[in-house]
Write a sequence for this structure.
C-alpha cells in the first residue's frame, strides 16, 4: 500500500470541517487512514436529482484512493459512471457511555467522512488487480490458491474508485463526562465497550471444504476484534483516546 | 411502541426497490423494523446544494417514525429544519463468506434504506419525551434513577424526526454460493460469523460509581451480541435466513 501518511493533513474545508464537538476532530492522514482501514464496510452517499441515497458496501483503500464494487446493473454505479460527488462515511461503535444524567449518555466511536468524485474503473486489468488486491488485503495469499477471476465475472462487477479530496475524522473515547453536581447520583456510570468480533467458523455444508482455515485465514481467530485484525493486516495501529 | 407491523408491506418504489440481488429484498414491515431496531447507529444521507453528506448518528424508532438527535449547531440539522429529503440507512455485518473463487467471496449482512422528509421536533415536551424514550429503550428504568433533563440541556440538543415514506431491506445469509466446477478447489470455504459484542465494563475512574451495573443494565452482559440485546429490548426477534 503506497505510504501517503507522510503527506500533510487533510485541510479542513467548509464541507469536511467538524462543527459539532470540534475537539473530537482529526485531520491527519494517519488517523483518517486507520479508521478507514479498520473497516470492511462503508456507507456511500450520493444524490440523484438532488435526492440523497446511502448505500452500504464493502470498500478498501490504496493510498489516497478508495475503491468499492457492485453489480454493473446498480443504479448507483450507473449514475456514478460519469463521475459524481460522493461522501464515503465509515463508522465504528466502540462503547456505550452510561452517565449520571440522561443528557450525558453517549457513545464512543470512530468515524470518517471522505469526499471525492467517484468514477468507474474501466480498464479490465486494473479491475482484476483491484479485486484481487481486495481479497489479498483481507485474506493474504488467498488468490494464489484459487482460480483466476473469469472474464464474465469481471464483466458482471463494476469497480468504482475515488481519490480523497477532503476528509475528516471524529473520535469519542474515554468515559462519561458528568457534571460535578451529578457525581452523587445513585447510578452506575462508566463504559460498556463494544467491538465487532469473529464467531465460531461454519464450514460450508453443501460440499466439505478442503484446505485449512487456520492456514488460510487463521488471523480471523474466534473472538478476535474485526477492526484489530484488519488494522494488523494493513500494518497499522488503532490510534485514539 | 405502536404496533405498525400489521400494516401492509412498504410498496417498492423507484427509489426504494432493490435492484441488485432482488432475491435478497424484503419489504414487509416486520423485517424492516427488526433491522432498524437491532441497531443503535444509522447513517443519514442528505444533500446540500446537490452535494451528498453521510453522517453517522444514534437513532431510534417509534412506529413509523424515526428519530435522531444532535447539537442545534450542526449544519445537517440546520439544513433539515425546513424539512429536507433524507435517506436513513442501517447495516449490520453478520459474517464473512469465504468461497472457492475470488468472485464469490461475500458478506452476510442486514441493511435497510428508509426514505422520508426530516424535520426538527420543536415542541419542548415532545423533545423531552423523545430523549427519555431513547434512554428507556436502551436502559429500561434508567430515567427514573437520574435527575430530569435540564432546560438548557434540552435547548442544546435538537431532535429530528421523520416518518418512513418508503423503505426496503436487503439481507444476505447462508454460506458460500460456489459454482459446482469450483467445488474441488483446494481451499477452506464457509462462513466466519461476525457480531458486535459487549466487552468487560469499565467503571468511571473519575468518581466511583454508585448503583449496580447488573441491576441497571445487566442486559448488556459481557459477551452479549448488541443486536440481540436491542431486539430483545424491543420485544422482537431477528428474522432472516
Amino acid at each position: 500500500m503506497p505510504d501517503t501518511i507522510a503527506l500533510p493533513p487533510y485541510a479542513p474545508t467548509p464541507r469536511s470541517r467538524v462543527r459539532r464537538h470540534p475537539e473530537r476532530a482529526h485531520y491527519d492522514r494517519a488517523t483518517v487512514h486507520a479508521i478507514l482501514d479498520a473497516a470492511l464496510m462503508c456507507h456511500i452517499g450520493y444524490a440523484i436529482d438532488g435526492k440523497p441515497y446511502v448505500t452500504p458496501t464493502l470498500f478498501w483503500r490504496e493510498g489516497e484512493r478508495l475503491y468499492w464494487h457492485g453489480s454493473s446493473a446498480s443504479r448507483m454505479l450507473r449514475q456514478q459512471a460519469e463521475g459524481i460527488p460522493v461522501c464515503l462515511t465509515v463508522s465504528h461503535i466502540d462503547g456505550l457511555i452510561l452517565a449520571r444524567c440522561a443528557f450525558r449518555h453517549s457513545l464512543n466511536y470512530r468515524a470518517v467522512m471522505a469526499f471525492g468524485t467517484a468514477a468507474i474503473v474501466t480498464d479490465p486489468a486494473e479491475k482484476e488487480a483491484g479485486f484481487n488486491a481486495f481479497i489479498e488485503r483481507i485474506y493474504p495469499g488467498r488468490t494464489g490458491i484459487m482460480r483466476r477471476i473469469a472474464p464474465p465475472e469481471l464483466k458482471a462487477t463494476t469497480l468504482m474508485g475515488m481519490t480523497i479530496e477532503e476528509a475528516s475524522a471524529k473520535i469519542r473515547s474515554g468515559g462519561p463526562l458528568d457534571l460535578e453536581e451529578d457525581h452523587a447520583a445513585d447510578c452506575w456510570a462508566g463504559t460498556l465497550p463494544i467491538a465487532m468480533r469473529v464467531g465460531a467458523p461454519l464450514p460450508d455444508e453443501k460440499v466439505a471444504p478442503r484446505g485449512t482455515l487456520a492456514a488460510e485465514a487463521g488471523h480471523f481467530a474466534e473472538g478476535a476484534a474485526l477492526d484489530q485484525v484488519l488494522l494488523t493486516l494493513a500494518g497499522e495501529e488503532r490510534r485514539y483516546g
